[in-house]
User: Fold this.
Amino acid sequence: MTFDVWLSDPVNWVYLAIGAAVLLCGVRVVTSQNVVHAALFLVGALAGSAALMLLLSAEFVAWTVVLVYIGAVIVLFLFGIMITRAPVVRDVGLDNKKARPVAAVVALATFAVLTYTSLLAFGNTEVARVGDPTPTETLAEGLLGRFVLPFEVVGFILLAALIGGITLARRDLSPAEEEERGAV
Amino acid sequence: MTDLLSNFWVLLVLKVLVVATLIPLAGMVIGFAEMKLSAKMQNRVGPYFAGGRWGWAQLIADGVKFFQKEDLVPAEADRAVFKFAPMLVFIGTVALFVVLPAGPDLVVQNLDVGIFYALAISSISTIGVLVAGWSSANKYSLMGGLRAAGQLIAYELPLVLSVVGVVVMAGTMSLNGIVEAQAGWLSETGWQGGLPFVIPQLLGFVIFMIAALAELSRIPFDMPIAESELVMGYVTEYSGFRFLFFFLAEFANMFSMSAIAATLFLGGYWAPFVPADMLNWAGPAILAAKVGALVFLMIWFRWTFPRFREDQLQSLAWKWLIPLSLLNIVLTGIFKVAF
Assistant:
């Protein structure tokens, strides 16, 4: 398929516009000199990727991105930033200009690897058309039928990571401190 | 007429217009109900003079007043974020109306993942509240924003988990499908079809309503905007029409949360003994009656319970509501497989 044939489909204009917005937001996430602004640009990038999922007719995945990433992960980010330090002014130290070339190389290399493997795996496979959403039932049958074992394994690993995180983060009180707590 | 209605763009504009009128209208009706009912419960008169009778024009006058006020931005504030935050809160509110069904065909878009969409999109408002508190450059606002975030994270989980029982029973996430699963009728052999899910899912309904109250930051869960401690928390620095955004979002959210609760647990636009072909006409009135009952319950709560303490709020969510909603899912699953 040549580029002008590809471009003649209006769906692909939408794809290009969203893609450009995601890219712009992504770059601003790492170049912004304000942590909260960076988090907000991350919201933009994630919302854009949810929109791309909608274009690919993956309705459930799109709203999962919104619920989990925007609704929970970013809120936790912002919460964490605000209870530690979040000056309203700019923080020049945030944008490490010297590291930019290295970061660009790493980002481009990651992009190349992901693009190559996706092309290798899917190549010219036709994806479902817009306006023809994948029924959630199909997804559920896949996850809880054919792929139930990997699904459970992932769940188990996440649980282990959760417990591990709590164990690492908590600091056991010394007997003296314990007594002090008990007194209050 | 049908030709015109089948045109995608005409239909789209029509739907947008309906939602755009419904939100301020629902907000004003609920706001006025709150004023009058609060007055009744406190043995006052409430709004009296505006509009001549019962003070019915009080909120219209209030709305006009907000538009005349100066749009203040604190000198230390992060201007762009400060101005953007109310819109972010409002996006979550407006987008929720897309999936609310008022009749078998009276829905903006009947999504296959309807209830999941509603829960996902309403979580966007949380970010708006958080950055509103942060960008005001005011410590009371920041405290309010933080409290709101802590509260919304804690109550998002029981809210989502309490819905799972309904989804398991109905076998679908589409809100229309959930209403259809509850529709039943009386025949010669007895009751046919389903029952409103409030009967088999009573536990889920109670958890949902408590979590919804917390999500709405209403008394007894109003710590984020506690007037006596935080002088209104994250809305302290807002004035004029930006304040109006928060104000309207609060009442519109009361409406949409009640509408979702009514759809999930009380049968939505369906009512017993209303013939199925009448539902497109009677549906909005039936839904409005159920929403009205739930909104009354919320206002009643406001003047019945004192405000929780922050640690009581957290332990209620993590120690009681989340385990109970998990138990509810397990019981519903067993029930579904066994019967």
Q: What stands out?
A: The mean pLDDT of chain B is 83. Residues 76-338 of chain B form one domain. The interface with chain A takes residues 76-78, 81, 111-113, 116-117, 119-121, 123-124, 126-127, 130-131, 133-135, 137, 142, 145-146, 149-150, 152-153, 156, 160, 173 of chain B (CB under 8 Å).
